[in-house]
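Weekly modeling sync, notes
Attendees: S.R. (lead), two postdocs, one rotation student

Agenda item 3: backlog of single-chain predictions. S.R. asked that every request posted to the team notebook include the full sequence so nobody has to chase files. The rotation student volunteered to paste the first one in as an example of the format we agreed on. Action items at the bottom.

Example entry:
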Amino acid sequence: MRIADKWKDYELIDASGGERLERWGEIILIRPDPQVIWNTERKNPLWQNAHARYIRSSKGGGNWQVFRKLPDRWNISYRELKFNVRTMGFKHTGVFPEQGTNWDFVTEKIKNSDRQLNILNLFGYTGCATLSALSAGARVCHVDAAKGMVQWARDNATESKIADRPVRWIVDDCIKFVERELRRGNRYDGIIMDPPSYGRGPSGEVWKLEDSIYSFVELSSRLLSEDAKFFILNSYTAGLSPSVMEYILSSVIKPKMGGTVSCDEIGLPVTQSGLVLPCGSTAIWESK
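Predicted structure, as returned to the notebook:
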């Protein structure tokens, strides 16, 4: 497992009974996590002293139960980057901290390149991967269907003092954008793809990962330059294992580009137990 263990402003304090106890800067949150199927003793007193807890509704969705004064938004840092955090619907905060291990991979690849790389971040969300690539010296195209998420990403770039770096902020359906880029003849040295399990584009287009991922990887791989460096595919869909994603990249990209393909779970260290919570899956193609 690849572990995101470089955080200072985020900590997974404990995990038990279907919930995480987390520190986001100075704010303590309790959030549901279906992976946490064990019921270990909740010894840490912060379980009883959190700022807020997300409660799922039996009808779907849920709401935040606030116990202590909670700011509308606050900042956390990862290395030299700053991300805005806030409590959102469906338990999210705008940052997936386990992705730190993928941001580190992107940063290393870009910094070790002998030229400036052109990176495409599809389903870019609030821009944490985009900022990692920008701070390492790449040119980046950030694409997400949600206007609010793209604005959030731009705000994060401003907070991180890298808003002046070479970046294109695009609000668009990712599939349609890729099709247009192919017609324009544009190419990228690295592609980051973190698609949702299910979602809708700006015009109501339905995205279901299992039905669409193979064809979309195949389509997007045509945007790789002749001397491309990497293609990252990330998933939180339970039915899409690391090995399945490895098979997809090995079938689609490796025959044309050579290189190697690897896959693994990504996870977060749990302070209380000393164990690791699995949080998703990533497969990576990289050139030799």
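Discussion: group reviewed the output briefly. The two ends are 22 Å apart (CA to CA).
Action items: rotation student to repeat for the remaining queue; S.R. to check formatting next week.
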